[in-house]
Design goal:
The protein is mainly alpha-helical. The protein contains four helices and no strands. The protein has helices at about 5-20, 25-35, 35-45, 50-60.
């Protein structure tokens, strides 16, 4: 079972991979999601205890299920 810190790091890595896969800057992705750019940076750095609502917004913005952002996929995850 992953610790809170490990889960935050997995989430951050997955958000970064999804954002890069869509060719979006942090600012563009933040606007799409409806949150501040600094929030995207904090999430990607694995330092965020985000709300469930934000997790759903992140997933909806790129058309994936929220649970996909919490699973370890590695750096070669093809979205």
């Amino acid at each position: 079972m992953a610790s809170l810190r490990e889960t935050q790091e997995i989430l951050g890595s997955n958000v970064r991979l999804v954002r890069h896969g869509r060719g979006l800057s942090q600012e563009e992705f933040a606007e799409l999601v409806g949150i501040a750019k600094v929030s995207i940076a904090t999430i990607e750095a694995g330092r965020s205890n985000l709300r469930l609502e934000t997790l759903v917004k992140l997933a909806d913005a790129v058309g994936i299920e929220p649970c996909e952002l919490l699973l370890f996929h590695g750096d070669d995850w093809e979205i």
